[in-house]
Amino acid sequence: MKNMIIPIFFLFSLLFSSSLGSIQDFCVADYSAPQGPAGYSCKDPAKVTVDNFVYSGLGVPGNTTNIIKAAVTTAFDNQFPGVNGLGISLARADLAACGVIPFHTHPGASEVLIVIEGTLCAGFVSSANNVYLKSLNKGDVMVFPQGLLHFQLNAGNTSALFFVGFNSPNPGLQLLDFALFKNDLPTELVAAASFLSPAEIKRLKAVLGGTG
Predict the structure, then answer these.
(1) Which residues make Cβ contacts (< 8 Å) with residue 35, sequence separation at least 6?
(2) Between 3.40.50.300, 2.60.120.10, 3.30.1330.30, 3.20.20.150, what CATH number should domain 47-172 receive?
(3) Domain ranges in the chain?
(4) Binding-site residue positions for oxalate
(5) CA distances from 103 to 5, 62, 68, 136 (A)
(6) pTM of the predicted model, to two decimals?
(7) What are the pLDDT digits (tens) for 159-185?
(8) In what residue span(s) does the Cupin type-1 domain sit (predicted)?
């Protein structure tokens, strides 16, 4: 046993010395360099300024004159270079009366929401198909686990505003309705996979811009 202590101690010393030696204060996104699986390359620290760590886009209301009566403004790494590599990001959602953020997933992050104005009906569906649904008012906070289908609906008669945070600089997004109906899959295939009628699928494809 004693003979094992020194090699194990040496191994951990190498691991810790290597990890500590590679620590950086930040990795501001370099948009001029190629983007890899781990995200953007790091900008030369000599060229980093305080403006790289400040983003004003979330202070502007989004345009809700669209089919879902909602707008989402993101502060992900492709808009906000300072969050690159930090494991965080933010977004703003504006919902007109009856506005909705349809069922969607974020494959790369969990989400935490705080209501600023209005009343929301929000919920998610677990992988066991259990539904977690709640009416949220100003100041309420709700979390949505990574990868699970969730939605937010304006349940009031006035505009609603909420902010969300993610534990990733780019959480990813897939809207369920778009995945099903904003594509060129043949209607017959979508019908077989979704149990919807071909007529309804064609109607939804026409609304959302799909073909087939």
Answers:
(1) 41
(2) 2.60.120.10
(3) 47-172, 179-208
(4) 106, 111
(5) 53, 19, 12, 17
(6) 0.84
(7) 999 999 999 999 999 999 999 999 999
(8) 56-202
